[in-house]
Specification:
Elements: E1 4-12, H1 29-35, E2 42-46, H2 53-67, E3 72-77, H3 117-124, E4 132-136, H4 137-144, E5 155-160, H5 172-183, E6 187-192, H6 206-209, E7 213-216, H7 219-224, E8 231-239, E9 257-260, H8 274-285, E10 287-292, E11 297-301, E12 307-312, H9 318-329, E13 339-342, E14 357-361, H10 367-374, E15 386-394, H11 403-423, E16 429-431, H12 433-438, E17 447-449, H13 459-467, H14 469-477, H15 480-486, H16 492-507, H17 513-531, E18 533-535, E19 558-561, E20 564-567, H18 573-576, H19 583-591, H20 595-609, H21 614-631, H22 644-664
Length: 676
């Protein structure tokens, strides 16, 4: 079977330059939005990679030092290499009132000084002349354990990549956040590009989260406002066998690329050591001519004669890693690096603006990780028109011992692709009938009037819909029962009326039933409009390019839902509730895979969908299934049928086929269970 490349999401942006343009204070669009909230004690900034969160923090922190009584600023980042984002920065020359200056002694991410970081952290509070410290999360955890709570009075604690925090009682970062919030007068700024975790544990307890003022800037705003980057592609490459035998099929050495190899414990691993896999990738790139031992960088000659600079971040030797990281932190131009090979690093917060491609081997269990990796190639840079993320995934194989695991991985990939499609699409504004009378839809071409839509009745629900809808959808997509439902294993009614409200209640425990319903309706509507297909009155798809849709009459557009053409002006909640809003992601992936592979996946999914026992499957096979075939002139029930009862019959039939195949292969099987 051949390998398959499939681009799941391909989005073109308008290149307005808005997100990169600066105001009179030298602030970009997102930074100015965050600065407006500078007086908030607890501030949560959620914005995508490369939107300028680090400099936004500088502006706000300097204002707090100057005007809000803050004496000390602590900036904590996940790993040392990200500390580069908080190095000394000249802000005055662009119109701000002060520059960002960090004394080298208190830049604990400086690879040239690794001595007693916890000790220097504690010393920071005794030095009146020092007011800014930068450190890693680990240093913050270790040093804070030695300090009483009151140490953080009059301090600003800024935590980059805040999703590393957890509401779990054993979370070190979470404990520090709660100490500062509840036992000091200190301020907190939390920054993240993906405010959700892969382990299902909430980042903050609901009562703590309610105290944060959210500032949200989404992917669409960021990428649409770039000056150079105008195209983003998210794709998957399915392969048989060992990934090293196929990586050359997707690795373009002409593009600036980060390669993330799989963990040795993952199913995608070759069984070799991580060093052997790295060396093999080097050989596939070309011939290693030399290594610069002053900075740890390899020089590799390709078959066509190009000399590439390659960085190895898989190496565990601390001295070697420090050399490479120091080099990466000080890159000044595109020619300084060509390819980076990494394992657990070079993901969140890693700044390489010239990166064009991210090649990731193996399924990632966390949606956070997917978002962060994609963010490495979505920074705006002159000469970079297209950014691409490719995930290499092993094809499910009929002879594979644990096909169910492969199917589970496949569903994770679907979920991740759907998530990215959601957060990178433009937002819609949904109106009630009453709101439309007050302001007709023609005044706002991205507004849709929906019959039966409940108005947002509280400040809490308005905040959730306006600032946290993507975060909520991420939480919904991580729910195990919802993931199973994506492939059609659950009726739309149960998905919409039971599973989604369950996640909303778990995330926002203080909402009333009416408020849960208000939020639920917005989640479903937003998802349907972003994953559905919009067509014109002739049934032809409309491509949503920024600016283009504003030239067309909204009233003439139609929305294709569940194979029906529905006029937008007549859209109703009852109609929306009748469909699975997440179905399209599964369909898109399915259409992109060849028939034999799709058959394997669908066979396993069909057997798993309804959790049928063998006895139940036999009962259906002998009765309702035969009746269905007779009534439909020999037609076999389809696993894709919109009727869940028909899909259940298809699942029973597939289970019988699987049992028969096992019998033919001589596997453990009771012949009485199945009659031909």
């Amino acid at each position: 079977m051949e390998q398959i490349n499939t681009d799941i999401v391909n989005i073109r942006y308008q290149q307005t330059g808005a997100s990169s343009a600066v105001n009179a204070l030298g602030m970009r669009e997102m930074q100015a939005k965050a600065y407006e909230a500078r007086n908030q004690r607890f501030l949560l900034i959620k914005a995508p990679p490369a939107s300028g969160k680090s400099r936004a923090l500088m502006f706000i922190a300097l204002d707090k030092l100057e005007n809000q009584g803050i004496k000390k600023v602590i900036v904590a980042v996940p790993e040392k290499s990200i500390g580069r984002s908080f190095k000394n920065t000249n802000l005055k020359e662009h119109g701000f009132f002060a520059d960002w200056k960090v004394a080298q002694y208190f830049n604990l991410c400086d690879t040239e000084n690794e001595e007693d970081k916890a000790g220097r952290f504690c010393e920071f509070f005794t030095q009146k002349a020092a007011n800014i410290l930068v450190c890693a999360h680990a240093t913050l955890r270790n040093a804070s354990a030695q300090l009483p709570d009151e140490t953080f009075n009059d301090c600003l604690l800024a935590i980059d990549e805040f999703h590393h925090t957890s509401a779990d009682a054993n979370s070190g970062l979470g404990d520090i956040v709660r100490r500062v919030m509840n036992h000091t007068n200190g301020h907190i700024i939390a920054m993240t590009g993906s405010y959700f975790r892969g382990d299902g544990v909430p980042v903050l307890r609901s009562e703590d989260e309610a105290r944060f003022y959210p500032v949200t800037y989404n992917y669409y705003q960021q990428l649409n406002g770039y000056k150079y980057l105008k195209n983003l592609i998210l794709g998957y490459h399915f392969y048989h066998g060992v990934y090293l035998d196929h990586i050359s099929e997707v690795l373009d050495t002409h593009k600036k690329t980060i390669i993330h190899i799989p963990s040795v414990n993952s199913r995608a691993s070759t069984g070799k050591t991580k060093y052997e896999e790295t060396a093999e990738i080097m050989r596939l790139i070309g011939k290693v001519e030399r290594k610069d031992y002053d900075n740890g960088i390899y020089y590799v000659r390709t078959d066509d004669g190009r000399l590439l600079k390659v960085a190895d971040l898989v190496e565990d030797d601390q001295k070697e890693r420090n050399l490479v990281q120091a080099y990466l932190q000080n890159m000044k131009k595109a020619d300084d690096m060509d390819i980076i090979i990494a394992l657990g690093t070079a993901k969140e917060g890693f700044d390489w603006q010239w990166c064009e491609n991210c090649l990731t081997i193996g399924v990632r269990g966390s949606l956070t990780e997917v978002v962060q990796i994609i963010g490495r190639c979505t920074r705006d840079s002159e000469g970079k028109e297209t950014a691409k993320f490719v995930n290499m995934i092993a094809m499910p194989d009929a002879e594979q011992a644990d096909v169910k695991v492969a199917v589970n991985d496949f569903l994770k990939a679907i979920t991740a692709s759907l998530l990215m499609e959601q957060v990178m699409a433009p937002n819609w504004h949904f109106k009630t009938i009453k709101e439309d009378k007050e302001k007709p839809s023609s005044d706002d071409l991205r507004s849709i009037t929906v019959e039966g839509l409940k108005p947002l009745s509280s400040a809490k629900t308005k905040m959730i819909v306006q600032e946290q809808l993507d975060d909520l959808k991420a939480a919904i997509l991580q729910d195990e029962m919802v993931v199973k439902a994506i492939s059609g294993s659950t009726t739309a009614e149960r998905l919409n009326k039971e599973l989604i409200p369950k996640v909303i209640r778990e995330r926002y425990t203080d909402l009333t039933d009416d408020e849960v319903e208000e939020v639920r309706q917005r989640v479903i509507l937003d998802t349907v409009f972003k994953s559905g297909e919009v067509v014109d009155d002739k049934g032809e798809p409309i491509t949503f390019e920024p600016g283009k849709e504003e030239k067309e009459s909204e009233g003439n557009k139609l929305l294709k839902i569940a194979n029906r053409f529905i006029e937008i002006d007549k859209l109703s909640i009852n109609l929306i509730d009748s469909i699975n809003p997440f179905q399209r992601a599964y369909e898109v992936m399915s259409k992109s895979i060849d028939a034999p592979t799709l058959k394997i996946i669908q066979n396993i999914i069909a057997e798993q969908k309804f959790n049928l026992t063998i006895e139940e499957a036999i009962t259906l096979f002998k009765g309702p299934l035969k009746q269905y075939i007779q009534e439909h002139n020999g037609k076999i029930p389809s696993a894709d049928d919109p009727n869940p009862k028909v899909r259940e019959l298809a699942a029973a039939l597939q289970m019988m086929k699987n049992l028969k195949e096992r019998k033919m292969r001589g596997l453990d099987f009771n012949p009485d269970e199945f009659k031909k």
